[in-house]
Amino acid sequence: MATINELTPPYRVGYFVGSLSAHSINRMLANALVSLAPEDLVMTEIQIGELPLYNRDFDGHFPQVALDFKASIAAQDALLFVTPEYNRSIPGALKNAIDWASRPHGENVIARKATAVIGASPGAIGTAVAQQQLRSVLGFLQAPQMNAPEAYIQMRPGLITEDGSVTDPGTEAFLKSYLDAFFEFIERVLTVVPKAR
User: Are 36 and 179 in contact (CB under 8 A)?
Assistant: First the structure.
């Protein structure tokens, strides 16, 4: 039986940048998404770079940085993953962050969050393989996923500036439509998926 929730925007969207590089093309893409997002999406970066490597020995007594990280995810209505592709997979730092978010057993803060995946690469396939692997992980974690439109961005020099300005009108229009679709998806998920207890 579906639960109808009475929720209204704005919606809080936490976004992850899978690369730790300050000059990452995926950080540039994330900056563009923040600047192009509808005003009813409040975008907040969730930092992953300070997390130690996850170890189940931490279960039951997480370090404060991990507790703060999980709390920042729990406070969001939806999650956006902006990921590079490393060796045909997702970056280790991003996988590590997801592991922290899902542990200990029974305390997965990603579950039931509306999610979307996007990524940029200099190559023509634009992080397609990494995104498919990330989708598999999110599926296991019971996170509803926006399956379309998919977004595989081939990052050409000058396409997006450091501050997130998109120089190609077609790419800018596509990113806006992607974010509009994500807004609609978030609204659908929040309407019928009850919050975790």
Answer: yes
